[in-house]
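Example record used in the benchmark description.
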Amino acid sequence: MTIDVKICGLSTAPTLDAALDAGADLVGLVSFAKSPRHVSLEQASALAERARGRARIALLTVDASDADLAALVAAVAPDVLQLHGQETPERVARLKTTYGLEIWKAVGVWSSDDLAAAERYRDVADRLLFDAKPPADAELPGGNGVAFDWTLLAGLDPKRPFVLSGGLTPETVAEAIRVTRAPAVDVSSGVESAPGVKQPELIAAFVRAARAASSNDGRSSS
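Model output (structure tokens):
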């Protein structure tokens, strides 16, 4: 079984190239004005074209309107639509029907109760992305550099794909994979020197560490 490695919140051509050169399977573009990783419609389109054919493109949005989503999908042509807001299962299902894209639904995790609540998305999202539940005063639903108790995921059905996110770094991703046997990992702040400022050497180190960890637990790298 291979592991998918995603570098999210890329906003410049050099850091996008760093992720592609490192062998990331997915690159993430953020459309959320409050985020330090936000890219405009024009930037997202240009970055997506730069990545196309070398990695899958994930478009991250937070409670975007129908009109905004239509414009974004038309401009970016993503492979994955990553939803980080309060989207209901009904809305997730509707977006899946409308766009025919692979859909990831982010779920904030603090306790086993959060995992139980996430089950309502299982039949409408292609993957659940488990992220640390943000602090009460946080302005961002993700990318806060906070981890959660990975052992909460240890009992998940390995046949049901999910993505592990939240506070991962090049130093911690191997242990996170060992504990959760996650089929995919997603990093943003863990490869930055400041919010939104990606570091090529950290991107490369993260991908190497994730690949090595997946090989060590019996999975082959992609």
